[in-house]
Amino acid sequence: MSQIGSRRGAEYARILSTGAYRPERIVTNDEICEVLDSSDQWIRERTGIVTRRFAAPGETVADMGAHAGTQAIERAGLTPSDIDAVIMATSTHMVSMPSAAALAAAIMGCGRATSFDLTTACAGFTHGVSVANDMVRGGSARHVLVIGSDRMTDVVDPADRGSAMIFGDGAGAVVIGPSDVPGIGPTVWGSDADQSAALVQTRSWTEYRDEDDAAWPVLSMMGPKIFRWAVWEMAPVARRALEAAEVDVADLAAFVPHQANIRIIDQMAKQLKVPDHVVVARDVVDSGNTTAGSIPLALDRLITEGQVTSGGLALLIGFGAGLSYSAQVVELP
Ligand SMILES: CC(C)(COP(=O)(O)OP(=O)(O)OC[C@H]1O[C@@H](n2cnc3c(N)ncnc32)[C@H](O)[C@@H]1OP(=O)(O)O)[C@@H](O)C(=O)NCCC(=O)NCCS
């Protein structure tokens, strides 16, 4: 009986470059409060958010992702045809087919790459890094473009006090390719599906179609419940990712948690005993929570602003709807 042939990829994989796209329009808390019953002071104190970006009308998840992706490809010193796979982490692509990844691939000029979307909300990007790492090492792709892109303004009720002030639009990307040394540590990931009701879309698209006078489906979340889950259950996940990578927290150059709320970020850093010399990403202050875009945007900022240097280690952790989470230590490009 003949045996199936197998192939192996690179010994290791690493992030080769980052890219970012922040929509032009900056939205202040005061503008949010023109519709929302809240105040600039409350939003700053409870979330740390001062401004966020809103995408222009007609500017899609694929458009934003393609901007970030193109920048990442250029910075890796590659051309679009070098990309074997495009993974788009998103929860706000408004059609089921074709995928946002396919649309972005066509815009970027890498339309022959395999492309697919990955939907795990705010954990989407770190899930994508894990999948790309396995693809490069498993031999199914040499260069994988992982994009996190979300247009939250389509799914947020601007009058909802529990969510309207938090979210923004944007996209970030990384190219993951072969490496001689380990550049991406083992991913620690999982779900808490019993708590899925904590962050939901209010109704399905078919309910919206079939119900008389149905309101547009929007995001609805149990904010304080998610806050507690994030603070108490995600710090141990981050610690496990450090252990899996055999890295001490003091060896990190940066801690880049999902940018949900500054109080969650600060509490996690405190629980992990992140020392002062480790840069903690606080992109949420002027980006808000961009869901799958949040970690790559924050990572890109640390690099482009020179807050970290190439070769340093960063701990990434994404968490959100599902409830789902994933974390890994990566070497900075
Ligand atoms: C949503 C969130 C900012 C609310 O902050 P909070 O400190 O938990 O606030 P609470 O809901 O406990 O409400 C506290 C008080 O503020 C009021 N309040 C709630 N939202 C408000 C708003 N937008 N503006 C002004 N006041 C508000 C409440 O009515 C309550 O008043 P009371 O004490 O008189 O009853 C916070 O829970 C959060 O960030 N959760 C995580 C959300 C998240 O990260 N989601 C994405 C996951 S990936």
TrEMBL record:
Pfam families: ACP_syn_III, ACP_syn_III_C. Residues 116-192 form the Beta-ketoacyl-[acyl-carrier-protein] synthase III N-terminal domain. It comes from the Bacteria. It catalyses: malonyl-[ACP] + acetyl-CoA + H(+) = 3-oxobutanoyl-[ACP] + CO2 + CoA. Its main location: cytoplasm. Residues 259-263 are annotated as: ACP-binding. The keyword Zinc does not apply. CDD domains: KAS_III. Residues 242-331 form the Beta-ketoacyl-[acyl-carrier-protein] synthase III C-terminal domain. Pathway: Lipid metabolism; fatty acid biosynthesis. Signal peptide: none annotated. The keyword Lipid biosynthesis applies. The active site is at C122, H258, N289. PANTHER family: 3-OXOACYL-[ACYL-CARRIER-PROTEIN] SYNTHASE 3, BETA-KETOACYL-[ACYL-CARRIER-PROTEIN] SYNTHASE III. The last Arg residue of the ACP-binding site is essential for the weak association between ACP/AcpP and FabH. Belongs to the thiolase-like superfamily. FabH family. This is Beta-ketoacyl-[acyl-carrier-protein] synthase III. It comes from Kineosporia succinea.
